[in-house]
Write a structure and sequence with these properties.
The chain is α/β, with parallel strands linked by helices and 343 residues long. It contains twelve helices and 14 strands.
Length: 343
């Protein structure tokens, strides 16, 4: 890596694997002061940029994703190319490195190939490393059911195994899968996003050496595809849908009753838990001045977190549910059945 190149760390991992929690932890440590963070979320409405409260507003940039099948090539090239002057402070570039947090459902290969192969990007940046978060609880099932998750692990330089505190013991089946998919990637077992900053960042340059032969094939395929498509979509698409997976944002204008809201989430978890790939929300609970943040993946919901303050002037309850074969109308109907009418 040349001394003038700005290093990029790509943080990837499937839905609910804990990527945002890792970023929040690093921000609270104070190690992201000179780091530009680009967040790409699945669906038209994202919440991660609101939930990353410790990161300054001009440090965090939400990158529009376009459709998942086309990924974010054009948007990423434009954002990175313009970043040094668009996000300048006092007329000067203030950041020394970049973190790109990918959407959990994304194929990482097009993003990596864009950084490696696009001339506009490679003139200013260098791909330093890929860090992949893996959910210790749901990892085996996710890798079995979602090829995107397999690719996210295979391209990794380092793996963060998250939520290990929720297991009574290690999972040999998951360990074997990670070793097979990413034989050269060391694994760090973490709790509550507590990744070591020195371990997270790399001063090297990304390489396919030590990775399976599939990785080089995927990157070469993306290079050929980008040359043919030249960034053009050529088809209609739904920003909130990827195959059977749909992102739904449910909004409530008025403060919600905590008991009724929890009852509806419990009902969804009991009857459709396996299909709830990601649930996250910021909740305005009746009788409370501060917002509550909720996170869940499949049958596991984490204890709610009370924020010190609202991240913006918007006081509405917003919950994003990414699920398989579960429509927005069905979710709204579940809440309505308990007397909670979404807007």
């Amino acid at each position: 890596m040349s001394k003038s190149a700005i290093p990029i760390t790509v943080l990837t991992g499937f839905l609910g694997s804990g990527k945002t929690t890792v970023l929040r932890y690093l921000a609270e440590l104070g190690v992201l002061n000179r780091t530009l963070v680009l967040v790409n979320e699945f669906g038209e409405v994202g919440l991660d940029h609101e939930l990353l409260a410790p990161i300054d507003d001009d440090t965090l940039v939400a990158v529009e994703s376009g459709c998942i099948c086309c990924t974010i090539r054009a948007d990423l090239v434009q954002t990175l190319s313009e970043a040094p002057w668009r996000y300048a402070r006092g007329g000067s570039r203030w950041f020394d490195r970049v973190i790109i947090e990918t959407t959990g459902i994304a194929d990482p290969a097009p993003i990596l190939q864009t950084i490696l192969g696009d001339e506009k990007v490679s003139q200013q940046y260098a791909l330093a490393s890929v860090v992949t978060a893996v959910d210790a609880i749901n990892g085996v099932q996710t890798l079995d059911r979602h090829f995107e998750a397999v690719k996210q692990v295979a391209v990794a330089d380092r793996i963060l195994l998250t939520k290990v505190d929720l297991l009574d013991a290690t999972n040999p089946e998951l360990d074997e899968m990670l070793q097979r998919l990413a034989p050269s990637a060391p694994v760090s077992r973490i709790i509550d996003g507590a990744a070591s900053a020195d371990w997270f960042f790399s001063n090297g340059v990304y390489s396919v050496d030590g990775k399976t032969t599939d990785v080089e094939t995927w990157l070469a395929g993306e290079l050929a595809a980008s040359a043919v498509n030249d960034g053009r979509h050529g088809h209609a698409h739904d920003l909130n849908r990827h195959g059977q997976i749909e992102a739904s944002c449910i909004t409530f204008e008025q403060p919600v009753d905590a008991v009724l809201f929890e009852s509806c989430l419990t009902m969804l978890m009991e009857f459709r838990g396996a299909d709830l790939l990601r649930v996250k929300g910021i909740i305005n609970v009746a009788g409370m001045d501060r917002p509550i943040v909720i996170h869940g993946v499949q049958h596991v919901f984490h204890p709610p977190e009370i924020l010190e303050r609202w991240p913006s002037e918007d006081r509405r309850t917003k919950i994003v549910i990414i699920a398989r074969d579960l429509s927005k109308e069905d979710i709204q109907g579940c809440f309505a059945g308990l007397g909670l009418e979404a807007s």
